[in-house]
Structures are given as structure tokens and as C-alpha cells.
Amino acid sequence: MDEHIMKVQFYDAELGWIVGVCGTVLKTTDGGATWVPYSIGGSAIYSAYFLDDHSGWAIGPLGRIVFTEDGGESWTEQTSSTTELLRTVYFVSATHGWIVGLDGKILRTINGGTNWDNISLATPLDLRAVYFFDENNGYLVGGGGKIFKTTNGGDTWDELVTGTDRDLWSIEFTSPTEGWVTGNDIILHTTDGFTWSSYLFNENLILESIDFTTSATGWTVGSNGVILKTDDTGMNWLHQDRGLGTTFTSTYFTSASIGWTVGIEGKILHTEDGGSHWEEQTSATENSLYSVHFEDDYYGWVSGDGGTILKTETGGTSWIPVSSGTGQPLEALYFTDPSNGWAVGWSGTVLRYDGTSWSPQISVTTEPLYSVFIMTGTSGFKGWAVGDNGTIIMTDDGTTWRLPTGPVPTTMRLKSVVFTDELHGWAVGYNGVVLQSDDGGNTWVLRTDITTSSPQSVFFLSPTEGWIAGMDGLILQTNDGGLNWEKQYSQIYGPINSIFFTSSTEGWAVGNAGTIISTVPVVEKITREDTSNPKDYALMMNYPNPFNQTTTIQFQIPRLSEVNIRIIDINGRMIESLVNKVISDGNYSVIWNAAKVSSGIYFIRMESGNFNTVRKCVLLK
């Protein structure tokens, strides 16, 4: 399968399905020895559920629901009455099923999907998973550590106490009372269906799925190809295998060409061609690295687990360990010049570099800190750091730290902070938290109008132009200082941990499973074919296909619309944007010149309003 796999499900030892994000379905009847491809078609697919050997449902963005009665060979659309992103679908019988998604969206059917009723939560929460025992008793999990339980089929939901605000992704029960939930570096366990104990990790893991064969033996899988197994009801979890994709945590560029990316297990990568090629540098540590900062093309720093701080004066050809004086994980560092730097980490750790050595500063919190930003103000250094439980601390001189004078309107984990000048700043974190300050960080306003996903990184290039990145491939951009934010298409379905720009058109973002993406310039070569007025949206198959270097893509739109046509590779990365503009109704064509890409399978994605479809093409050189 040449696309991102979203769902694997086996009905028995022989019969199973794989569903890909572009709508491809593979079916096996011999335990996976051979697979037969089918196509759902249309827009992306995020999840699927098969009730038996013939009945199944698949869901995706813009409220899409499709249904099969022949084991996936053919699919029909069902009406959802929503345009929200739908994440998970679950059925307990041929008639009763539930779907959950963004903004607290819950859909329920009692007739096999002929009709879907909206029974959504009042709170705009990002819901990730749903599980039911029967037609009445079930659970929901989502962002911010939320778990809900119903005993009446979803008419009402009671929130359970979990003791965490970490995002939750998956739920599994082996009996009506014993179950498990996985999330960001956490596994929760209940033996009564109400109270939950937790098993915590410190590996930047996003555990996205869990399955138990008995009450004692289970597996969970997630980011960076991790597979964990327990044989003692979750008391201990051991690594079984680890995939090839590295979780990247931070990236920094000194120019449009030269940059570095760091990640877990001491990984440091370097590029000198804008990210087209990356070479691994020797870090001399196996500790996970969380932050990278460079002053120029040669002088840089990295921080990470166990108080790790590395320094280079050669652009990374050699990295030298530097004593930090602490064993705490150091989540972030920031330099204003070679002689002045700060690092923050767990237990409220704040360190200061004076050009010679690192020394601790007096902190006003014991909460873990995940981000720090320092600037040279009119009267000296000014800085801010953010962390767990809505923690924000600030300094007016680079030495003494204090709390804001006003209350912080969240208790969620804050992951990133940035200021565009001494007054105007932003902080982002779990469960859709975006905070804005216009008085130097003394008071903060919670912006509930921006996203319900979980931002992980915020970056501003100027007082007006900035980006927010996070879970589910989230990238938002503003050109008016944060008054309005527009979604950008990352083509990534996992988390983005860090985003960085050197200009309005040159930026990079990194995440889990080896994700490194960069901006792609828009090249529009559109030709209107005729003056007729189409009745529907359509994306025709490109011709020729297969092709050598150039191919023509025809499309039609029935009304004045914003049209986006992009080329995507088999790893989900955007290769080129062919069309990105508002166009009047008509029949059009655009030529893709693939001279700069290698032979292989690519996807042509067209999005316009509620229309979203994908075509497959093959480049042969």
C-alpha cells in the first residue's frame, strides 16, 4: 500500500482489512498471505470498522461516512449532517453504532447508518475513541485527559476523574469493569469502570492503539514505531520492537539552506540544502534531545534528558558535552547571543549561561517547564517560560523570575511560548489552548476561536506573521498578528512537534515517525479549456499516466470556488502545490512538470469547499 495506513482489523484468523488514508482498501482471506485491493474513492479516510465478514463503515474529514455490504468491494455514502473531522467509528450490532470526532462531535445510529443523530457534547472537545459493550453502556476518550461514560446509549455522558490532562487516544475493555486507555506517555487502567490508575512514561510516546487478549496480556503501539507489551495486567510494560522512524522534537535554521533537527536517542540531523537531504551527526549521547538553538552556521547548543547539554563550534561536525549541574530533563533552551543563554526543564528547573558555564536560577515553580523565550528589551533581558498545569513564569531582567500578576486562564499543559515584542506574546498547549497577551505576559486571554486540536509549537517571524503547529498535522497561519488564523495543509496525520521559518515562504516542521516537512512554493500554470458551465466538481485522471516528466491534470468546478490541487508522495508529504487560488466556474487543466522528483507513485489531491478527492499517478523516468 503506497499511502498512510489508518486502520488494520481482522475479523478472524483468515479475514482482515487494511484501510489507507487515500481510500484504498486491502482485503485478505488467507491470514495476510495475499491481499486484494479495492477503492473507497473520494476524500481521505481516517478510520474504519467491520462488524462481520461483509458489513463495514469508514469515516473521515468533512463528516464523511461510507458503508459496505460486500466486505469492502463496493461502498456507498451515508449522510452525517456534519462537516467536522470524524475520527473513530464503533458498532455493537448491525443497527447500533457511534462515531466521534472534533469539537465534541458524537453521532449515533440505530438503523445501521441510514440515519445518524447528533448527540454531541456541549464542550468543544477533541474526541479520539469510542467503545461500547452493548446498546447502552459505553465510553469516550479525548484531549486533555477526558474520559466520559454513558449508561443510556449516549443520551447523557458523565465525566470520570482521570488524574491527568494528557491527551488520550485509545480505549479497550476486557470485561464490563476492567479496561485500559492510552495517550501521550500514559496508560490508564480501571478495574471498576470508574476509577483509574496510571502508568507514566518519559519517552515522548503517543500511544495510539491498545489491545488485550486476556486480562493480563496486552499490547500498545504508537509513535516512533514503538510496541509495548504487558503480561501482568499493565503493572509493567516492556519494549518489544522499535520502528525506523525517529521522533523529532525540535528544528532550527540559520538560513534557507542550513539547519538542524534533533530527536530521541541522541539523534541530530544536519542539512545544507534546505532539507532536501539530511546527514546524521555524532552527538556522543543516547539521551533523547528536546531542543536545538544556533547563533550562526557554526555555534550551537542542544539540550535533552538527564540534564544533557551539548555544544558545537563547528556546525555540528563535533558536539561537546557541557556540564549543566542538573540531572533533570532539559526541555528547551534559548540564546540571545553567544554569551547569554537559558535552559528550562522538569521540576521548575531554570539555568543561565554566562558565556563560561551554566548555573541554576531561583525558580518560582516546581512544575515541568517545556519552552523558554528570551529577548533583549529596552531595559535589559525579558523572558517567559511555560509548562504543566498552565504554568507561566517570567523575568524582567534575565535573572529574577516571577509569576504573572494576573491569573492564567487554563490548567492545561503549555508546550510553547513566543513574543513578538515586549508586550505581545503567545503560548499554546494541550486541548486547543491558545493564549494571547498584550501586556508583556502579566495577563493572558484564552482564544477559544482558533483550534480544538492540541498545539505543540508556536513561531512568529514578525509581529504580524506567525504559525501554530501541533497534533493531527495541525498548521495554522496568521498574517494579521493573530486576529485571524487560516489552516495550512501539512499532509501529515500525526503530531508536529516543532515549526520554524526563515522567511514567509521558507519553513520547516518536524514530528514523530521521522516526519520532516518543508514549505513548497506554489506554481500555477492553469488553462481554461472552454466556457461551459459544469454542474459538479470533478478531478479527471491525469494523462498520460504513467508519464515521463510532464502530465496534464484536468478538473472542473461548478461555481466560483477556492481550489487547491497538490502533489503528494507515498509518505504523505506535499511535493508541489499546482493550484491554490479562487477560480470561476469552468473546465480547466494544469500541467505538472516532475523533472525534479524521482520515479514512483504519487497522488493528486484536489480540495474545493466540501469536495475532496484523490487520483493516483505513476512517474517513470
Structure description:
- The protein is built from no helices and 59 strands.
- Among the domains are: 5-173, Methylamine Dehydrogenase, Chain H (7 Propeller); 526-619, Sandwich (Immunoglobulin-like), CATH 2.60.40.3080.
- With 621 residues, it is mostly beta strands.
- The strands form 15 sheets. The protein has a 4-stranded antiparallel beta sheet, with no helix packed on it.
Radius of gyration from the alpha-carbon trace, in angstroms: 25 Å
| CATH-assigned homologous superfamily of one domain | YVTN repeat-like/Quinoprotein amine dehydrogenase
- Which shape, going by the Cα principal axes? globular
Beta-strand level of the residues, as a percent range? Answer: over 45%
Strands side by side in the biggest sheet: 1-2-3-4
Distance between the first and last residues' Cα: 21 Å
Helix coverage percent: under 10%
Biggest beta-sheet profile: 4 strands, antiparallel
Class inferred from helices and paired strands: mainly beta
Give the low-confidence spans. Answer: none
Instruction: Quote the average pLDDT.
Output: 87
Number of helices: 0
Going by CATH, the architecture of one domain would be 7 Propeller
CATH topology of one domain: Methylamine Dehydrogenase, Chain H
Number of strands: 59
CATH class of one domain: Mainly Beta
